[in-house]
């Protein structure tokens, strides 16, 4: 077969794959659709996917999580947004998980205090909550499926800032995800408080933006721990 004909056939096959993939993508909930689209946009070629190594499960991987909530009380407030990132033991990013916004009833949004109404309104989160099709259960399933590719259940501590608050909400609204983590926490806020007292210069030299957007806050937690490790903690 002439080379030009072979190239034309390959191009047609690629176009058909892209059409089928787009049709399947439209059936997904909005949050997962964006995550899948990000992956597919890199290259829809199945031969490339076949050459890509399967993610390695490593018990030393660290799972970082951040959530935005409608308030401070798990019994009456709800989870609005969740994001996870997996790093290796040296705090290098291994994989970025889905960033999911959960739909909540209007009564939940109306019950938010002034700080939450202002913060989530300014970031656009409140509108995304109204438009979202994700339930907490479906989001929990998606995050668990992602994490299972990188670390076994019960191995990674829950990593982040003031992470006990996230854990309280997970225990109430996403108990299977909470149980996926080791019972220990890796709370960067502990180092923040110690640096404030023991090494004020190191404490002052890291400035947080605190955007109150789940994924941005996850990466800021990782960056803060990297800062303490580089400037204060001796890793040998």
Which fold name fills CATH's third level, the topology of the largest domain? Answer: Nucleotidyltransferase, domain 5
How much β-strand is present in the residues? 5-15%
Shape: globular
The CATH top-level class label of the largest domain: Alpha Beta
What is the H/E order?
HHHEEEHHHHEHHEHHH
Count of the domains: 2
CATH superfamily of the largest domain: Ribonuclease H-like superfamily/Ribonuclease H
> What composes the largest sheet?
5 strands, mixed
Written account of the structure:
This protein is α/β, with parallel strands linked by helices. The chain folds into two domains: 3-51; 62-231, Nucleotidyltransferase, domain 5 (2-Layer Sandwich), CATH 3.30.420.10. The protein contains twelve helices and five strands. It has helices spanning 3-26, 30-40, 46-51, 106-110, 114-123, 125-131, 136-147, 163-173, 175-180, 188-198, 200-204, 214-231, and strands at 62-69, 79-87, 93-101, 158-160, 185-187. The protein has a five-stranded mixed beta sheet with strand order 3-2-1-4-5, with helices on both faces. The radius of gyration is 21 Å and the shape is globular.
Summary tags:
single chain, 236 residues, alpha/beta, Nucleotidyltransferase, domain 5, 2 domains, 5-stranded mixed beta sheet, disordered N terminus
């Amino acid at each position: 077969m002439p080379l030009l004909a072979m190239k034309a056939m390959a191009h047609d096959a690629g176009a058909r794959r892209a059409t089928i993939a787009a049709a399947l993508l439209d059936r997904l909930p909005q949050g997962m659709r964006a995550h899948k689209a990000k992956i597919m946009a890199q290259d829809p070629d199945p031969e490339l996917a076949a050459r890509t190594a399967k993610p390695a499960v490593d018990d030393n991987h660290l799972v970082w999580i951040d959530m935005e909530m409608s308030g401070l009380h798990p019994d009456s407030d709800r989870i609005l947004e969740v994001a996870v990132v997996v790093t290796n033991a040296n705090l290098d990013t291994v994989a970025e998980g889905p960033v999911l916004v959960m739909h909540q009833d209007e009564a939940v949004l109306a019950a938010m205090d002034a700080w939450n109404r202002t913060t989530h309104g300014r970031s656009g989160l409140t509108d995304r909550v109204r438009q979202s099709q994700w339930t907490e259960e479906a989001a929990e399933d998606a995050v668990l499926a992602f994490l299972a590719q990188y670390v076994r259940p019960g191995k990674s501590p829950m990593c982040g800032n003031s992470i006990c608050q996230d854990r309280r909400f997970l225990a109430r609204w996403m108990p299977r995800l909470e149980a996926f983590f080791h019972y220990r926490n890796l709370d960067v806020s502990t180092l923040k408080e110690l640096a404030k007292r023991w090494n004020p210069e190191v404490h002052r030299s890291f400035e947080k933006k605190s955007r109150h957007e789940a994924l941005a806050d996850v990466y800021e937690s990782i960056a803060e721990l990297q800062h303490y490790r580089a400037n204060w903690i001796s890793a040998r």
